[in-house]
Amino acid sequence: MRSIWKGAISFGLVTIPIKLYSATEQKDVSFHQVHREDGGRIKYKRVCSVDGEEVQYSDIAKGYELPTGEMVVLTDEDFADLPLTTSRRIDVLQFTPAAQIDPIYFAKSYYLEPDGQGTKPYVLLRDALERSGQVAVVKIALRQRESLAALRVRDGVFVLETMLWPDEIREAEFGFLEEDVQVRPQELKMAESLIDTMVADFDPAEYTDAYREALQEVIEAKVAGREIVAPEAPAEQGPAVDLMAALRASVEAAKRERQGAGAAEKSAAKTPVKAAGKSTAKSATKSAAKSAAKSAAKSDGRAAPEGAEEESAPRKRKTRRSA
Description:
Radius of gyration: 36 Å
Number of strands: 9
Oligomer: single chain
Mean pLDDT: 80
């Protein structure tokens, strides 16, 4: 990882120099727009919509469009007069329980590393914050934008979670919220039972991006010149007509799946013993069939044909039972 920002955490009279790193990355397959015929990259020109002339990057400014369609052009001098702090400080505003911050506010995560002589105060604040069970609400200016952020501890490292401002969170205004939807107690109990049967510890390593993996396989197949076989898409299920029946079936399926997994683990330890027993039983059966077939052939005064052993043995046993 490479540091993208250097500054300091300002905590009362304590200043902790830090380096800031992006904590996440998008593992996506990126593409270029190309000419279908020869694979050539597509390039774009910056053309003015008024005079149709190509514009150099140095002549491009930022414009704000009014509802009337008119454009307000802003210059570098206009931005220079704005009250955006240029100090590279992470100002601690307050401490608050993590449960009071709705995750919908979180935008992007960054790691903070102590810089220079900042290791001891960094560890001091980290341990104190971890023992308190609180998170720090801070303010930071990144990329010409001032943001609120939450400072928390993860695996011994400070994580800075930049946050959206309250007016950037949309209200969930949906019609069904005003409807009087009646849920029967039996349905609620069955839904809770389904939740209970599916409770498990979260391990993110158990999940993968199936679409990205399949797309990567398609690309590798094209590179190798192999035939591409598309996997069958799972059948989509429509909404349940009988909610109670669907919940009950889901609960039973979840229980069977868990019982099957447990039975598989138990049988795995006993498999060698069972396999040996089955093998011995099969050998004994085949041996008895062969000897019975030979005896029948001798009594007829002819050799037993191939494959007759299995057919002769059952008939002879039946004759003995009737006698």
